[in-house]
Each structure stands twice: as C-alpha cells, then as structure tokens.
Amino acid sequence: MKSLQQELINILEYKKITPYFYPIISSIKKGVIGYEALINAPENSALHDQNTIVKMAREHNLLQELILVYINNAIENYSRFNLDSKLFLQIHLQDIEDVKPQINEILYCLDKFPLELSNIIILLRQTIPTDDYAVLLEAASQFRENGFDIGLEDFGIGYSNLILWSELSPNYVKIDQHVIRNLKSESIQVNFIKSVQGIANSINSKVIIQNIETQTEFELIESIGESFAQGYYISRPEPIPFKKIDHLIIHDKLPTIFNESTVTKIAITQSSVVETICNYIPPVSSDTLINEVMSIFQKQIELMILPIIDNDVPVGLIFRDIFLNKLYSSRYGMELHGRKPIKTFIEQAPLLIDYNTPIESVSQALTSSMHNEQAFIITREGQYIGVATILTLLERITQKQIDNAKYANPLTLLSGSVPTNEHVDELIANNIPFAFGYFDLDNFKPFNDIYSYSAGDDIIKAVAKTLTDAISTDKGIIGHIGGDDFIVIFTNENWLETCEQILDNFKDLVPSYYKPEDVAAGGISGESRSGEKCFFPMTSLSVGLVPPHVTANCLSHVDIADLASESKKMAKKIEGNSYFINNRQSPKKIDSVTHNTP
User: How many CB atoms lie within 10 A of CB 591?
Assistant: First the structure.
C-alpha cells in the first residue's frame, strides 16, 4: 500500500486536484454571488478532504505546489460553466516568496481561460498561526497591485484580528466558524456578528457568515441584515456548482414597537452614543494656506487628521498621509500648492454624524454615504464638536462585547443581572414603556435530584431556547440572572400575548425531558426539602409580570425587582404554567391579575 506522501506526489504530478465549488449567497436577495473553490483530491483518495490534503502538503513542504495546481484546475473548471459570479480562490501563505508565482499562475490562467480578473477574489489564509501579519499584509498589497479584490479567511474575535482587519481593509471578511456555533437570538455570538456587520458596512467590506447548517440559523442571519452566507443548509460544495438555490425563502419581519420615537430611544439605550468616542481636534478654516497646514502637521507629530471648519460648519477632513502624498507626488509640490487654500485639497464633503447617534447605527450611515475614509465628523445641531475614527469605533464595539461577555451566564450565554439592571435603568431614565417578566421553574429541585444535574442543565437550556425563540431583539431583552431564574424586558406592546405563548410552548416541550412512565403519571415521586415523601408534578414556569403602566412609575430596577418578586411568589401558588400581573402602585395596595395555562 503506497504511503500518503507518495499519493500526494502523484496527485500533484498528474494535476488530479478536483476543486469543489461552495456557493455563497446574499442573505437578503437569496441569489448566488459567488463560489469558493475548495482544494479537493479525487473522491476515492484518502486525501480527498481539503484539511487533510493541505495538512499533508504543508508537512512535506509541498503546499506551494498544491496551491499552484489548485489555482489552475479551479479556474479551468469554473470557466466551463459560464457563470457571471465571483470565484473565491484560497491562497494559503507560508512565505512571501510564494506570492509572485501564485499571481503569475492566476494571470496565466486568466489569459488561457474565459474568465475576467474582476470576478476573482483572493481569500488569504496564513497557514502558520502567529500574531505577526507582515506576510499577510505584504501578500494583500501584491495581489491588489495586480488588480485583485481581497478576502480575509477565518476572522475571529481577538483584538489582533480587529487590528489586522483595519490594516488589511479586505473587500470580504469570512467570520470564523466557532462564532457561528449554537446561535441564539440574544447570544453574544449574534451581538458580535451584528457589530462586525456594522463595521464592515462602514468600510465597504462584505461579511460572509459561514457554516450555516439549519433554517433557524439562516433566519437569524436574515434578521441581522444584508450579508453573505455559506453553509450546508444553503448547499454543500459540489464539483458542478448549483446556479440557483431554490429552498431559501424570504422572510419579511417587521418590528412591532410602541412608536417610532420609542424605537429611536430603545436604540440609544442599547449602546453608547457616538459622542462617547468623540475627540475634539482644533480645526482650521478652508481658507487656511496649505503651507500653514503643513506647519501644523510638522509641529504635531501625532496629529493624523485635521478638521476643516467654517463658522462651526464642517467643510472637510484632511488626512496627514493623503495630504503628504499629494503634496509630494511631484517634485515641486510645495512650490506649486503652498500658497493655495486648503479647500483646494478637499475632494468630497465629510460624513457628519449627530452626537446622539448610537454607535452601532453609525456604520449604516457610513455605508449609505459610500465613504471609504478612516474618520468622520461628530456634530451637535449641525455644528462641529469633534472627530472619531473607524478604528476607535471598532474598538468600542468590541469592548462592549467583551463587557457583556463578563456578565453572561456560561450555560445559556444570556446576559446576567448587571447589564440587564443597567438596561432597565436606562429605559426608566428615557421614559420608554416596557413590561417586566420574572420567570422561575417550578419543581426544578426534585427533577434535578432524580434525573441528575446534567438533565437539570438541559431543562434550563430549554427555558432559554423557549424565551429566545419567542423574544426577538425588537420584542425585548432576555437575561439569565442565575440558576433557574430568567427575566424578560418586553419592549413590544403585545407583551402579554408573547408571555402566554412562551408558557404554552414550554408546556409542550417539558414532557420530552421526562421518562414515559413519569409523563403518564404526570410527575415524579421524591423527597421534599424536609425529607418527606412527596409527588411533584412535571416542571413548569411561574412568571411574575409588571406591566408598563407600573414600570413607568418606578425609580430604578430595584423597585421593579421587588414588584416582580412579589408577583412571582403569587404566580407560584397557581398550579402549572402560570403568570401573575402585579398592578400595585404603592406598597399598601395590591391589584392583580392571575392566569394559568389549561
């Protein structure tokens, strides 16, 4: 039996690489925008899988030979299908010396086969893990010099990756697969993806979210906004690419919030506003001479951006690197331009962002303006108050995700009590109507004792899933504050119907966690806390509810927590899945509504 090394050598010698084409679609338009060519050996080979053959080639110093054969076969095969879509080519980098032969091979193939250079996307992947991205950056530069668009493979959540993204400015970013696993509508992963999507929009990058394996995951990606998606739910990679994906359905989901002003206020409470990243830089007027601007940059070595403001009204931004490049692009640049006003160097109007705009919303404005700059001007009532950079924006959003992660429940990844309490206080401060629900499991301890802690964790995760399935981001916020206790901040006006649906769904779900004989009996026998033999019905949810007209009169999350705890205790006195609405306006008066699901 021949060795795998010899098999690899034979595959390369006879150019037996058979690329499989993995479609990438628009999550909104559902159309195929391109195909990623995978590196596959023949189907009957032990090296058929891409990871296997790439690893083998790297171990035997044959990776460059593998990539060159792959490039030729991928372009040749793809050109046969007459597709007007992008072809994403994987480029595995070990050394910068590899790049020139790879570029030459691609250009040679484009001359030989009917495929346009504009339809080729270079997906860069650094083979050896390292925080030194010099090879990657230099490779990107060389490919760009030859007219290629660039994609960044396996984008993760580390700060070094964010810096790389900022420096590389890729046309496409593929989010690393571990970020996608176990997606929940309120999870940190989804919040991270939204942040990445927003930043990508702001610098004209496109996000490709990979490993979409279920309809639920795809619908979740749809709800995040325009992005590109790839995964087995859409289509498996094939040697003959699918031209159309028929099973994808457009889901129109319109948010139901109290009113338009409420939507704006809720957006503001869910993130810091852009004023928090504002940096005041003393501006100059548009009539300032270019040699005076040069003097300012020379005296202030750290100054990278200079705002141009006339009578408090923003006119433009001058970037140090662009300014110097333009000034010294000719031999007599200073002599030619030095006495001209700086407004002659302003090529387009600056992007203006109001100081009270939520940070996550800034990216949408950047996208719609079609700006590809590194900074924008922040205004109050149209007047200049400072500048912010894209990198600062990216760092703030990333830090927000890290802060949320610190308080997230490790079992469900839902927000803990600290961020949830802060959100309640923000809603109260902004006079935004909301209802509050305190969800608690009944008969959870005996279930946990008899079925095991692992089974208890499964029930807790079932509660989390029931809540996240019912509460989208336009309907509220979910928190897991410990053990079997959950809270929901309802920001939609049909909060009571949503709560009733949650109880109905959970009631249908619970029997699947019990043995058939216990389901037939309606529960389990065990010991009470005092050690007495008791029969415990199947676990259910008790919900203490505080309606909007009551939360509106509360001073802080402490007041609401007291009311919710009080109503939850009342709900637990009702058998089965039930809720109790506390309409108390003062400690001396209780006016309540009770309900249990049949």
Answer: 10
- Give domain status of residue 236, yes or no: no
Asked if pLDDT for residue 129 goes beyond 60, the answer is: no
Percent of the chain predicted with pLDDT > 90: 43
Mean pLDDT (the chain, rounded): 82
**Is residue 462 domain-shared with residue 562, that is, in the same domain?**
yes
Please classify residue 236 by burial: count the beta carbons closer than 10 Å to its beta carbon, then call 0-12 exposed, 13-18 middle and 19+ buried.
exposed
**553 and 436 within one domain:** yes
Which CATH number covers residue 577?
A: 3.30.70.270
| pLDDT for the residue numbered 374 | 82
Q: Do 588 and 488 fall within a single domain?
A: yes
* CB burial readout 102-116, b (16+ within 10 A) else e: bbebbeebbeeeebe
Residues 354 and 449 placed together within one structural domain of the fold: no
Residue 190 CA to residue 205 CA, distance in Å, equals 18
For residue 479, the SS3 value is strand
**Sign of the torsion formed by the C-alpha atoms of 359, 360, 361 and 365:** positive
> Please, is 427 exposed, middle or buried when counting C-beta atoms within 10 Å of its C-beta (0-12, 13-18, 19+)?
buried
Side-chain-side CA neighbours of 415 within 13 Å: the count stands at 25
Whether 464 contacts 402, CB under 8 Å: no
Tell me how many helices (H) and strands (E) the chain has: 21, 21
DSSP labels, 10-49: HHHHTT----EEEEEEETTT--EEEEEEE----TTSTT-S
* Of 595, 587, 592, nearest in space to 553 by CA: 587
> Does 240 reside within a domain?
no
Residue 492: inside a domain = yes
Residues 42 and 15 both lie in one domain: yes
Q: Which of 493, 267, 492, 482 is CA-nearest to residue 358? A: 267
The structural domain count of the chain equals 3
Q: Are residues 417 and 373 in the same domain?
A: no
What does the DSSP assignment read for 107-165? Answer: HHHHHHTT--GGGEEEEEEESS--S--HHHHHHHHHHHHTT-EEEEEEE-SSHHHHHHH
Residues 6+ apart with CB under 8 A from 196: 155, 173, 175, 207
State whether 23 and 66 are in the same domain.
Answer: yes
In contact, 308 and 283? CB cutoff 8 Å: yes
Amino acid identity, position 348: Q
Go through the chain and tell me how many residues it has.
598
The answer to whether residue 261 is domain-embedded is no
pLDDT in tens, 385-438: 999 998 888 888 777 777 767 777 888 888 888 888 888 988 888 788 999 999
Residue 33 has pLDDT above 80, yes or no: yes
The CATH number of the domain holding residue 309 is 3.10.580.10
- Rounded to whole angstroms, the Cα distance separating 394 from 17 reads 40
Q: Is the pLDDT of residue 263 over 70?
A: no
DSSP-based three-state secondary structure for 316: strand
Structural domain span for residue 337: 275-392
| First-to-final CA distance of the chain | 68
Using alpha carbons, select from 92, 83, 140 the residue that is nearest to residue 116. Answer: 83
Span 114-132, average pLDDT: 80
